[in-house]
């Protein structure tokens, strides 16, 4: 009898879950990549931490579906637990208590996403926080990190990824989100403040506008349709000053409609995300309230980390970066797809 698991538009035959071996040389190279990362941060006196993958609560993030499970205790009620989509909730507690810059390489889990060339339900994340630094400082740190890794692994300044030659030499190309919108679409972020005007601009670009589409959803439709596909692929690109209309725990950039946030693209692939971390407790609570409402519409609505705003309010000035290790590995070694970089069995038999 065939038993199927249905997730989104994917049907997986659970009676045939094959072992998918990873090439042993890839294991070796991925191990060397992690060693290089650890050496870079240890040289700079960052504390390496190792935090739980199972959590009794999470930071509310409306755009992320999560995996839920439970701890079964004989003689007691089961305790709900969640696989972490990011170690952020634990790492910020450590920073608040220690005042230290910290880093971690860990497994993270995202549910409800389409499996594909760049996506898997679990993946390796490098996350680090630098105290007494902001998001612009973190651009330089990231350039230095990637340069150190390449040299440690013997990877040259010029590499091939598919049909593109990437020049990794810093400084990376830096473009504000306002400018990239003006260059790609003819209008900047300041002109997108009004929701109805944004709807009209989307319709003018022949983008379907739903009656319940939010400002954030419409912004992403424009970005994914017209901006992201046109980003340079032969040079790392940092898109900075993301719109403050996208709820995050990044600080607002004073006097602008932007947040102190950037994302790094290499070879057309989104590789890293960075904030100047918000420390105002009132703003953090507002974020929690807003995202909690969105999570009510999620398949799984987890318990929230209600203590975290207190910890965040005690953070020193700091900047955090999350970088996808699997995607970095693909870029460094010209690997076309994320499949095969782990033992994941969910690719072979999908109808």
If you had to describe this structure to a student in words, what would you say it looks like?
- With 351 residues, the protein is an alpha+beta fold.
- It has one domain: Bira Bifunctional Protein, Domain 2 (BirA Bifunctional Protein, domain 2, 2-Layer Sandwich).
- The protein is 32% helix and 22% strand.
- It has helices spanning 24-43, 88-98, 135-153, 177-185, 195-204, 215-227, 281-295, 308-313, 325-333; strands spanning 4-7, 10-13, 47-48, 54-55, 68-71, 79-83, 102-109, 122-131, 158-161, 164-167, 173-176, 237-240, 261-266, 269-276, 318-324.
- The strands form four sheets. An eight-stranded mixed beta sheet has the order 3-7-8-15-14-13-12-11, with helices on both faces. The protein has a three-stranded antiparallel beta sheet with strand order 4-6-5, with no helix packed on it.
- A hairpin with a 2-residue loop joins strand 13 and strand 14 (269-276).
- The longest helix has 20 residues, at 24-43.
- The chain starts with a strand and ends in an 18-residue tail after the last helix.
- Taking pLDDT < 50 over at least 5 consecutive residues as the criterion, the unreliable ranges are 1-10, 14-19, 347-351
Terminal residue distance:
17 Å
What is the mean pLDDT? 88
The CATH C-level name is Alpha Beta
Outline, from the CA principal axes?
Answer: globular
> What is the count of helical runs?
9
Strand order of the largest sheet: 3-7-8-15-14-13-12-11
Q: Give the class from helix and strand content and strand pairing.
A: alpha+beta
CATH topology: BirA Bifunctional Protein, domain 2
Number of strands: 15
* % residues in beta strands: 15-25%
Radius of gyration: 21 Å
